[in-house]
Write a structure and sequence with these properties.
single chain; 561 residues; alpha+beta; Formiminotransferase-cyclodeaminase, Chain B, domain 1; Four Helix Bundle (Hemerythrin (Met), subunit A); 3 domains; 52% helix
Length: 561
Amino acid sequence: MTNQPLIECVPNFSEGRDLNIIRQITDAIAAVDGVTLLDVDPGKATNRTVVTFVGHPKAVIEGAFQGIKKASELIDMSQHKGEHPRMGATDVCPLIPIANITMEETVAYAKMLGERVGQELDFPIYLYEAAATTPERKNLATIRSGEYEALSEKLTKPEWKPDFGQAKFNIKSGATVIGARDFLIAYNVNINSKSVKLANAIAFDVREQGRIKREGDPVTGKIVKDKEGNSVRIPGTCKSVKAIGWYIEEYGLAQISMNLTNIEDTSLHKAFEECSISAHNRGMRVTGSELVGMVPIKVLLDAGKYFFAKQNRSTGVSREELIDMAIKSLGLNELSSFDPEKKIIEFAMKSHNAPLVKMNLREFANETASESPAPGGGSIAAYMGSLGASLGTMVANLSATKREWEANWPSFIKWAEQGQTLKDQLLDLVDEDTHAFNKVMDAFKLPKENPTEIETRKAAIEEANKYAMQVPFKTMEISFQTFPLIEEMIKNGNPNSITDVGVAALSARSAVYGAYLNVKINASGIKDKAFVEAYMSKADALLEKTLKKETELLALVSEKL
């Protein structure tokens, strides 16, 4: 559902040459409902494959378990050779929080996965990074020291007792390291120079480690030492950033190649701006940049907001506008075309399950009017809610740009940003409501030839009906949340737009009422009466508050007309 937690998993399997084995492992992962397989990257020299997939945490740890299980069946570590350090058939399996989930919650899922693998697959499991049980085990390289070949002896030492599983050597599968870590962004900034020396100078300016301090000449001067005889360093401007300069012959330019290991410490746009400042100070300029791999949408939304604000423009615009601003301002199209649908994790996940919101207005109306029962009232209710939020947001943005209202600019921008968030959540629910309907239909199609199948089918129908009730209830909740925005714009927004926010109030009311009808009809098929009563009680109260609020707001509109 909207705002569900999302995590990424990047397991590294010790097989990069046999495509049949790799395919069986990735098929096992992709077969798990709720998992989206994003990338499979095999390496022949390393004899290692890096797989990337995302989804709801429960689906992801199930997908990870199935991949680890299949790898343990197909990969024999006693025969493995490769250039990359490794200690198991599944060498390392990090979980990475992407959206609507904390690192602490992600750690809990990592431990859940580690415990299950240790119990069911019977080989040693170590936890690392944020999930590490001791400071010594935080670093992957420390845990993996000696690699597979040293594992047998290592397991005899008390200090290397695994976190899960028995302390015995599994000759075929080795050991696996599971953990939780921050999202890492591989990011390259382009400069108008071919000089690796100058690119390195910029890298030293921005990276957290900085550069060694010298007397006089920064390159040839005598190294400054502290009292203990250690080299003194001048820290760089970007925390949690590793960087180096290099020359890319293919493009004929030098780059500052960076790893941003914590985007809360240093954002993408901060790294770009610091490189730009350093380049300017050294007589160069940044010409563009490139992202290696995929990123969470927040990274580009934050960059878009930064550059809009820098131009003294409203940041309460659509996410498409924010992303376009980020692409243009960061020069992400300089070396190759930047496709948000392929480079943004959330977009890649929705590319196959959000067909309705990708339609134009005529296509959507035609699809609704067709013989198919979906999209139906639930999807239309969500869309009406999104239109209400859009109208409220439009008035907030118009008010922010009204002459002589500059003092109220921050307040209107804040309202506009809230409206954009609500609009996007409701647009997501347009497709989600149709997905919920299809889930019910799929449950009814399950076989019922024997008692086991009958019970499985009943359980699936019950679960699908509950989901189909929860989705329109979510539409009710989010549509109701648009009323504070609408009310503020009626009372204090641009008076020339008073009818626009009046229509917004009508849209929000219709969205809540329409979704309520869907909650009610979907409740009829649910056997769990306590579940139904709990949701209907909340739905009834929300509808009552909505009708009251609509009356109040339309009265205010009438007064101003």
